Amino acid sequence: MLNTRSITNGFSVITGPSHSHRLRHAIRTEQVPNFNCSVAGLGGMPIWNERLGRYRDGFGRGIHLVGDFRFGNKVLETTISRDEISSGKMDSLGIDKALISEQNDKLLYEAAIQTVKRLIASHPEDQFIFWDLSIREMLARQQGRYCESGQYQHPTWNLATVLAEFDGSAIDTSDILTHGQGFHVDGSAHPSFLGFMYLLSKTQNANVSARQLNAIVKREMLRVYLSASDHGQQKEVHFFGTSRFIKHAISLVKSGAISLPTEISLSVEMPTQISDQVRYVFCPPYFNGPTADVIAKKITRSADYLWLTKNTKHYSLCMFDQWATNQIKMRRRSNEDEKSKIIQISELESLIGDNSHEAALSEIRRSGAMVELGETVTPSTYGIIATILRFGYDANEDFAWSLYSRMRDNVYSAVMGIPVHTYDRK
């Protein structure tokens, strides 16, 4: 049923693959503003999948996020006709790597293009965002792939060609090619907070470019820390460890999806020197074990932990990966008995003691907003900001959420041309 896969609060509907699924989650958990439309989609769904018609029915306007052209390629095991694939009667999801070939790419691309033509013919008011194509072409250009004599030309699909063919129906995302580095969070082109705000600007016909949006988000993120610094931070703070939290946060900082103030630093490696002017936050990776006691011993006997506790008293322990893994397990397990077997972070915090209690992750209520959907530990933009505020500035969850919410709303206001609010300085 459509109602199980959508948020209905407007005249338009946004359809797509897992990007739509994640957008729906981001709206529900208030990580991004309400798009004032319904959102419906399914992971790995190609534009030609018959489900799109069901998602589209009943709405005055459809905005379709076109996913990877290879989505649904398993249909090629039994189908070789472009017309049959684009008929709107086929149901296939995801990508079978064994079926990737230049010939199959060409056939699927042509089927997608023919589907877009069919949808425009039946719904002239609909619009299309070629998100995956935009992100992947940006990355390919950065890597110097498919370039001949300084000109980019993919052998099968190119953004300029698609935008020209569907001028007026395809929303222009060409500025992603030069200013979209921070618009996605992983290799599947899932949108970051910055990417979602870009999609918001495009679906609302806002007059803001990718370059301008980057500047807006950076400004508002830095304002968050400026306000928090009056709340509790007294010195520089260095987060380190081999956790997914650290690695993902570093990748988002490098891409520009996340902005940090000068007093906050991140690294995978342990510091080579200790300074009394710096507070250290150790972020260990996830440790598996049958009991809390076993896991606690693995953490406290790790080389990084032993080195840190030997050399300074100015440290905290942030077990984000351990905590986030529990949240992911809780999402997919409906059986109460299975849930009861999950080792709670509060048990580890109690066993390890030392400085972990200063910012206990076990107290977090907005867990759904902290971790991206999926089976791997991937902190959301809010998850990264909230964790830094919690461990770096001693900000409680309510204060961290209030700062993030103000940042989110100010970005929206700036995008839509509405006066921006000021921050409360505490």
Give the topology, please.
Blueprint: E1 6-7, E2 12-16, H1 18-28, E3 38-41, H2 51-56, E4 61-65, H3 82-85, H4 102-122, E5 127-129, H5 131-142, E6 147-148, E7 151-152, H6 159-165, H7 176-179, H8 193-203, H9 210-229, E8 236-240, H10 244-255, E9 264-267, E10 278-282, H11 292-300, H12 303-311, E11 315-317, H13 320-332, H14 336-340, H15 345-352, H16 367-370, H17 381-392, H18 397-416
Parallel strand pairs: 2-3, 2-4, 4-5, 8-9, 8-10, 10-11
Antiparallel strand pairs: 1-3, 6-7
Residue share in β-strands: 5-15%
Order of helices and strands: EEHEHEHHEHEEHHHHEHEEHHEHHHHHH
Sheet with the most strands, sense and barrel status: 5 strands, mixed
Q: What is the CATH C level class of the largest domain, in words? A: Alpha Beta
What is the second-level CATH architecture of the largest domain?
3-Layer(aba) Sandwich
Strand order of the largest sheet: 1-3-2-4-5
Q: Could you report the average pLDDT, rounded to the nearest whole number?
A: 89
Distance between the termini: 47 Å
Task: Count the DSSP helices.
Answer: 18
Helical content stands at 40-55%
Count of extended strands = 11
Structural class: alpha/beta
Number of domains: 2
